[in-house]
Amino acid sequence: MALRIKKGIDILVPGLTGWAQINGRDELPIPVKVDFDEYYYKNKSFLLDLKILFMIFFKVMRSEGVEH
């Protein structure tokens, strides 16, 4: 949490998914997740949100990142 506060991204409201989740989720170390969240915070837009939704759809369809 301290790293999120330091980068000013602690104000982001958690949602169903996010930029860090579609780029590796649990495989990523926390500092990398924070970097993804910082990127999202600095570049947030409707188009980026659409890109995230689009990427989620294909990751789910391919079962990407799912352990069997």
First and last CA, distance = 31 Å
Helix content: 55-70%
Share of β-strand residues: under 5%
Uncertain segments are none
- State the secondary-structure class: mainly alpha
Discrete helix count: 4
Q: Compute the gyration radius: what is it?
A: 12 Å
| Rough outline | globular
**How many runs of DSSP E, i.e. beta strands?**
0
Largest sheet: none
**What is the overall pLDDT average?**
84
What is the N-to-C order of secondary-structure elements (H for helix, E for strand)? HHHH
How would you describe this structure to a colleague?
This protein is mainly alpha-helical. Helix content is 59%, strand content 0%. It has four helices and no strands. The chain has helices at residues 2-7, 19-22, 30-43, 46-61. The model has no long low-confidence stretch (mean pLDDT 84).
